[in-house]
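Researcher: Go.
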Amino acid sequence: MNSQPSNDEPLSVRVAREIADHEGVDPTELSPPLYHSLDPTALNSLFEPTAGGGPRAGRVTFTYDRKRIAVDSDGDVTVEPKRRP
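Model: Structure:
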């Protein structure tokens, strides 16, 4: 599942919403809570504009409940089942 940003919600909220959509649950019902896998404050600040006001570029990936989550600096969030080694 891959989606593009739709508004100015915090990135951590967007990630929780995308995972919940993938699971078919409300974001408040995620189990385990997203913060067990990722610091929401750190994610929110990761792609904030630089000190000069310019955009940041990059991607962060992490595993949450057997899923691979990728978050791009442009706000794109991808949720994929974790592949077996």
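Model: The mean pLDDT is 87.
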